[in-house]
Specification:
Elements: H1 2-45, H2 48-64, H3 74-78, H4 82-117, H5 130-149, H6 153-177, H7 182-205, H8 216-225, H9 228-254, H10 257-296, H11 300-333, H12 338-360, H13 363-366, H14 370-394, H15 398-424
Helix pairs in contact: 1-6, 1-10, 2-9, 2-10, 4-5, 4-8, 5-7, 6-7, 9-10, 9-14, 10-11, 10-12, 11-12, 11-15, 12-15, 14-15
Length: 426
């Protein structure tokens, strides 16, 4: 009888897991469908150089964005009591505001030099948008974590859909009447500003952001309680983002913005399944694996279910890209983007592993193995710097360097897969 009762509880949890994933995935699915069908229009309006400039901007803001919360985001989800989580929300918002001022001063003083150093002078005027991107993206992350904690998956889905509609509308409309990347940048700004504003309105109605929830004494105490996050998680995440964007920085420096545009299209398309399915599963896995670990001391069942589901999802796409990558990209985006399909063939294996590992790597936070995670990222940074600096001086074909990058990253993802399985067990 007890065994049957346990099996019934497992079935209920499994169905809840799938339902939560479905709720979040439905929104992100519609959002990515909109993105996919508007992309061929956008890539026929804007040039490779335009997309190369945008890609370099996103890479810079993405790497610097790691400091927007000093990695105090995850404790919002990990705290057992809502009142404590609200204090950490305030901690994150204060850090984000202070760091935005630092980014603004840095851009004003050094922005022109950065664009020139990375081989793209056209980037210089757009860097002045970086503080806006930094602030609103940071606030959006904070509000998204809270929504995930409270299982507000409908709000997350709505934001994804709205962003997917607004960004291409703005970019296409401006692109038809104005040459250059203006439409791309304004579309990006809309996509970064609107979601946190909607979150703010929703949370304000529920008094989540009320000053009554602000207690400076508790905020300081919580910052000390979770000091391992800025100590270990911050360097790890910074290195992770830097290594992810190293191809963009190096290709911009050695090959020019047009090649960055070609590379970024392949990365963007291969990243769609990660945003579409992986993103939804990641948010649900974080919440339910944490809950399972707090209640039972393990989350092995959740781990195995997630890996199995993502492996099945990834297989068809892997085969299609390997056999038809260049032809597919040329057909959808135009012949000038055929080279993106070649990049996709090189990158697809790594992206499949990334899709699988992205959700389950949260096990490092659940089991508080942040120091080990940081050491892996230090290896990753050192090895990638060696690959790129020696590779670009040794190989005439930059695709060979990207292949070495893929092999090394794939090795790290396999290591993560093995270690997180170990962490999931009792």
């Amino acid at each position: 009888m007890l065994k049957k009762g346990n099996e019934f509880v497992k079935r209920i949890k499994a169905s809840l897991y799938i339902r939560n994933v479905a709720t979040l995935a439905s929104g992100t699915t519609l959002a990515q469908i909109i993105t996919f069908f508007t992309a061929p229009i956008l890539y026929r309006i804007y040039s490779k150089v335009d997309y190369g400039t945008l890609g370099l901007y996103i890479a810079i803001v993405g790497v610097v964005g790691v400091f927007s919360s000093m990695q105090y985001l995850q404790p919002i989800l990990l705290e057992k009591e809502d009142n404590d989580a609200k204090q950490i929300m305030w901690l994150n918002r204060l850090i984000n505001s202070g760091m935005t001022v630092i980014v603004l001063v840095t851009v004003v003083l050094f922005g022109d030099n950065l664009g020139e150093a990375l081989g793209n002078k056209a980037l210089m005027p757009w860097l002045y948008l970086a503080p806006i991107s930094f602030f609103f993206s940071g606030q959006n992350q904070i509000f998204s974590i809270w929504a995930n904690r409270k299982k507000e998956y409908r709000i997350l889905s709505l934001n994804a859909i709205l962003t997917a509609i607004l960004v291409p509308i703005v970019s296409i409309t401006i692109g038809l009447y104005h040459n250059g990347p203006l439409g791309l940048f304004l579309g990006l700004m809309i996509g970064q500003i609107v979601p946190p504003i909607l979150f703010f309105i929703t949370l304000n109605r529920n008094d989540v952001l009320s000053l009554d929830n602000f207690n400076w004494k508790i905020i300081k105490q919580k910052s000390r309680d979770h000091k391992q996050f800025p100590m270990y998680s911050l360097p790890s995440e910074f290195i992770n983002r830097l290594t992810n964007q190293l191809p963009v920085f190096m290709l911009s420096t050695y090959a020019g913005p047009a090649v960055v545009g070609i590379y970024n299209l392949s990365v963007r398309m291969l990243g769609l399944p990660i945003q579409l399915i992986g993103g939804a599963i990641t948010q649900v896995f974080q919440q339910q694996a944490t809950e399972s670990y707090n209640a039972q001391g393990h989350f092995k069942h959740m781990f195995c279910k997630t890996v199995q589901l993502l492996s099945i999802v990834a297989l068809p796409g892997l085969l299609i890209i390997i056999f038809f990558g260049p032809q597919l990209f040329a057909f959808i985006f135009g012949l000038e983007w055929r080279e993106s399909g070649v990049f996709a063939q090189i990158l697809v294996g790594m992206f499949v592993l990334k899709l699988i590992v992205a959700p389950i790597s949260y096990a490092y936070y659940i089991r508080n193995m942040l120091k080990e995670n940081m050491m892996i990222h230090i290896y990753l940074l050192i090895s990638m710097l060696i690959i790129f600096f020696i590779g670009f001086k040794t190989f005439e074909d930059y695709k060979s360097v990207i292949l070495l990058y893929v092999i090394n990253y794939s090795f790290v993802y396999i290591l993560y897969l093995l270690r997180t399985y170990h962490f999931s067990k009792p």
